[in-house]
Amino acid sequence: MEKSRISLKVNGKAVDELVEPRTLLIHFLRERLNLTGPHVGCDTSHCGACTIDLDGKSIKSCTMFAVQANGADIRTIEGMAAPDGTLHALQEGFREMHGLQCGFCTPGMIMRAYRLLQENKSPTEDEIRFGISGNLCRCTGYQNIVKAIQYAAAKLNGVPFQEAAE
Amino acid sequence: MIPSSFAYHRPTSIADAVGLLADLGEDARALAGGHSLIPMMKLRLASPSHLVDLAGVSDLKGIRAEGGDIVIGAMTTQHDLMASDVLSTKIPILREASLLIADPQVRYVGTLGGNVANGDPGNDMPAVMMCLDASYEVASKARKRRISAREFYKGAYVTDLAPGEIVTAVRIPVPAQGHGYAYEKLKRKVGDYATAAAAVVLVISGGKATSCSIGLTNVADTPLWAQEAAKILTGSELDAATIKRAVAAAEAITSPAADARGPAQYRTKMAGVMLARALMRAKGRAEDRPNDAPQGRSLWKNLGFR
Asked: Could you report the predicted ipTM of this complex, rounded to two decimals?
């Protein structure tokens, strides 16, 4: 099958590649661009481990073809830390609040939380839970993931983080 | 899971899109948000030779008022529906239903046109559109036409769409100001299809329902417009006895399949429960609406969390 040329921006860098139309975006990112942060979890658009940010939307990259992303501006977990290695507030939050156990869901969780905080700078706990309802974690029970996002929201807003009483 | 090979087309106008679909024939499929079609392709339950991606067609996007109708482009996403101030004000049931579809990531991509045109009895918007008496604007290379949502669904994944036709827009008559509405959906978890769901739109005047319309989701091969149940309620005070009769009439037209969501009888009963709840909520909203017209709402406000 004839390949299609796609040009897009991934983590600030211009990318220009030939792809087979049937290549899924997750495979393009992982196998062509070696961005293995986005994970293949369920491969059926349920678990959210493949979540990336695309043109201001959180999307599940297992359910989009790379050709559909032609012209898009994409951010993956690899594009979150500063070039000098300083962690993004969300990454710091997941570390500080112990927001992961096995870590498999974490890149998708962080990319989803990133867009959530872009849209809603001070979400309530319920809004965070609603906002990450498309991302499954089978280890943590979500408590510390929610705290990690609250930590990041506080840091990004420049206010002290106060852990809610249990 | 890797789909079989296909050629990819990305037209920029409706004319080009339907031209491609006509020329490429039955091996071509239109691609909207792709969250039904791509999973089918990954499972090789669908193997189109050509995909005509509608994402580049700007005429398929947007929400506009036209006379007493609101016209929503087929490629408008569930996320767009939820974020629309005009819809939240004029047809708030769309926001309520959208919030119950799939999950945030899917709603950024999943489209209204795809949801109504796919013919999946599990999709939520078809019953809502039947309830609202919406119609679908349809185009092919040869012609344009408009068809009522209430006549569109013929069976599971079988609709009135002919080969080469696409839904270009959904046209919804704006319900009366102060109307009551509710979409009640029973589901096992986020992202699940409904075990059963009910959409209600009604108008109350002088303590009585002057009009009532009901749609039911996922309790038959097609979405259902529960005409008889609505007729029983119209003219009533929506009292418990009348609601009970209407619920029985609605349950009588269901014919759900037994599946992982439960046995058929259970799903029929749940359709009745969802309808009773939707009626009570719609009634409550209809009564307090005139003095409480909703103002512009942003996406993250009024989710009911604060």
From this structure: 0.96
